[in-house]
Amino acid sequence: MPPRLFLFRRLLSTSTSSPAPAPAPRPTDPALLLRLCTILYQHQHDPDDKLHRRLSALSLPTAPSDLRELFLQASARFPLSWRPVHRLLAHLSARHCGASDGGGGFPHSPATAARLLDVLAKSGNTDLLQSTLFSLPRTLLSAAALRAAVRGLAPSREVRKVAALVTLFPECHSARILTFVTDVACSEPCRLPDVAEKVIKRAEHQHGVSRTARCDELLVVAYCRAGSLAEACRVWNGMERRGHEPGAAAYQEIVVTMFKNNRAADAMRVFDGMRRSGVQDDGGACCRAVVSWLCKDGKVWGAYMVFAEMVKIGVEVDGEVLGDLVYGLIARRRVREGYKVFRGVREKDIALYHGLMKGLLRIKRAEEATELFREMISRGCEPNMHTYIMLLQGHLGKRGRKGRDPLVNFESIFVGGLVKAGRTLEATKFVERTMWGGVNVPRFDYNKFLYYFSNEEGALMFEEVGKRLREVGLIDLADILSTYGERMTTRDRRRRAMHGLLESVQSAQDVSC
């Protein structure tokens, strides 16, 4: 559990001594639960008297723990509908109004309060959500409850209501609550950094809560992931004016976003600033991203320097970094150096193989890439979908190339396969190019084609296609398609291939021992 969430959960508890453990609830009767949910669904719009009369006819439990369990089970059947859950809560509260708990008669717990707020948030009833949230005692507000409230109010852009959440807790914890609210608004599934920034400004001006460095860092990361580099730079400059030092996550996101926007020089300046400021790179993630993007841009010398720095500071170098280096060397026609790095790795993984394959395909050496594909399988490294799609694009092109044989070629296999699968609309442009020529076609989606034939019939089809391709001399393409048919067309075949891989690894370990 992250430290900040642990501290947040600590501040939610106001009691000085640990309470006695509550008795375990008894299992809910499935027949009773089914009857209760049926009544709530069928009579959710009926008058209160009629609904209460039907619910009173049920033999509901009386123990508080059993009631809470029944409420949790019933509310789980209505995750997106607030009315059945709210009316059930009203009935239980009216029935147990004599309870000593402060939850309006119903013996609430943090779990039931969080479930109620989650249902109200997902149903979009922001007014009822806010009123319920502020009516609950502070002892019932947990991290899950506050998270559900933010996820319900932020998509509706209720900035005032979200900013008011910091007033639910003591003033000494307001900054920490604001950081938590910003984190929820910027992360999945909200991804609303603009709303989070407005909430921070309103909390500063109206409630006197100062933003933390973590708030600004979350905004920078969220803006970068949303593709708003200008907004991220604006928040970044604001951090420097306030004296806040960005963290490693903010550095990594803004560096990657600058590389994506073809601003490699600015990205390297930010990366150098990170190294001069002494910010610790969490696991070398920023260095890995810089090496990957420098290799993509063809700046292998700069990638080597960052790679040497990673080794110097003790960052673990994995197959992805080495694969990026190999790809950068091969793409710059430095094939001998690329093979030297590749052969120097003792334990090769799929990322390293992919780096070499992608480089060979980049310089139009599809035959060598296919030979590497065969070596990859023989050494026990199981290919994935990306491997097959990359090889098919290397042999046939992203839009499909016409083969030498008039009967066994791209049109007869892939375009005909789309027609056979009933995807005639997707094959229309390719058929027009075959008939008249000179027609601009979109990129052929090999992923969807393999998905359409990922079944037992597809396995037979790939086997037959492999035989025909071998007859006309297209051995490499035949091996790719036939291997996919043997190992990837169905789930059972993928399991058998992976089981064989695990057995080969286990036998190799036994031999080494």
List keywords for this structure.
globular; 28 helices; repeat; mainly alpha; single chain; disordered N terminus; 513 residues; PPR_rpt
Architecture overview:
With 513 residues, the protein is mainly α. Among the domains are: 33-44 and 52-153, no CATH class; 401-512, no CATH class. Helices cover 68% and strands 0% of the residues. The chain has 28 helices and no strands. It is globular, with a radius of gyration of 30 Å. Mean pLDDT is 86; it is low at 1-19 and 98-104.
Mean of residue pLDDT? 86
Outline type = globular
Gyration radius from CA atoms, angstroms: 30 Å
Structural class, please?
mainly alpha
> Helix coverage percent of residues?
55-70%
Main beta sheet strand tally, sense and closure: none
Strand percentage: under 5%
Secondary-structure element order, as H and E? Answer: HHHHHHHHHHHHHHHHHHHHHHHHHHHH
Q: How many strand segments?
A: 0
Unreliably modeled segments:
1-19, 98-104
Termini gap: 38 Å
Helix tally equals 28
In short:
With 513 residues, the chain is mainly alpha-helical. Among the domains are: 33-44 and 52-153, no CATH class; 401-512, no CATH class.
Lay out the secondary structure.
Elements: H1 3-11, H2 30-42, H3 48-56, H4 64-76, H5 82-95, H6 110-123, H7 126-135, H8 143-153, H9 159-163, H10 174-186, H11 193-207, H12 213-225, H13 229-242, H14 248-260, H15 264-277, H16 285-296, H17 300-313, H18 319-331, H19 335-343, H20 350-362, H21 366-378, H22 385-396, H23 410-420, H24 424-436, H25 446-452, H26 456-471, H27 475-487, H28 491-512
Helix pairs in contact: 4-5, 4-6, 6-8, 7-8, 8-10, 10-11, 10-12, 11-12, 12-13, 12-14, 14-15, 14-16, 16-17, 16-18, 17-18, 18-19, 18-20, 20-21, 20-22, 21-22, 21-27, 22-27, 23-24, 26-27
